[in-house]
Amino acid sequence: MPVDFPPWDRVYAFFRRWRDHALVREFHDRLRPKVREELGRDAEPSAGVIDSQSVKADAVVGADSRGFDGGKLVNGRKRHVVVDTLGLLLGVMVTAADTGDRAAAQVLLRQVADVHHQLELVWADGGYTGGLVEYCLATFALVLAIVKRSDDMRGFVVLPKRWIVERFFAHLMRTRRLARDYERRTTSAEAMVCWSMTLLMTRRLARPGPGRG
């Protein structure tokens, strides 16, 4: 804790109050339209990208909200996110790492579609194939476009539109608190993701001149 801050328990009391009253998310959501408009975009997005990131959990994370991701070989939690085409966060949900991407996406996309009414298209990777595509179109009037690797691709390849969300995850990992999951509650973990993006957006808005963003 910085030396000019109050004792940690007092700081955490403020964070807990802001988290429980959804103020952390409100701070974040008020900044995103401003950043988009600064870059010449509409305040509300019409397209986005969905993906998930499995991260190791600290010992304080209980067994009720942690699991093992067999694909990534990670024991911990999974961050499911939807970002716009600028890489700005539209929605986040934290679950145990063994939660399937398609199951989480049904919940997260409903939350995002309820708030962002102009959203029409979301890109996703092959992990979101199956009935989810038809479900999104029928339930949310949302086109879920699957971006797949071609058969001749070898090694690590960042697919079109997929680099947007990969850059988002890279930013999260630069935030030391998010390098692994240290939060007892998933709501705290979600608030930390919003807080990290709030710091990013305030820095972008504070930049002088045409190079901002």
Automatic annotation (TrEMBL):
<dbReference type="InterPro" id="IPR002559">
    <property type="entry name" value="Transposase_11"/>
</dbReference>
<dbReference type="Pfam" id="PF01609">
    <property type="entry name" value="DDE_Tnp_1"/>
</dbReference>
<dbReference type="GO" id="GO:0004803">
    <property type="term" value="F:transposase activity"/>
</dbReference>
<protein>
    <recommendedName>
        <fullName>Transposase IS4-like domain-containing protein</fullName>
    </recommendedName>
</protein>
<feature type="domain" description="Transposase IS4-like">
    <location>
        <begin position="44"/>
        <end position="197"/>
    </location>
</feature>
<dbReference type="GO" id="GO:0003677">
    <property type="term" value="F:DNA binding"/>
</dbReference>
<dbReference type="GO" id="GO:0006313">
    <property type="term" value="P:DNA transposition"/>
</dbReference>
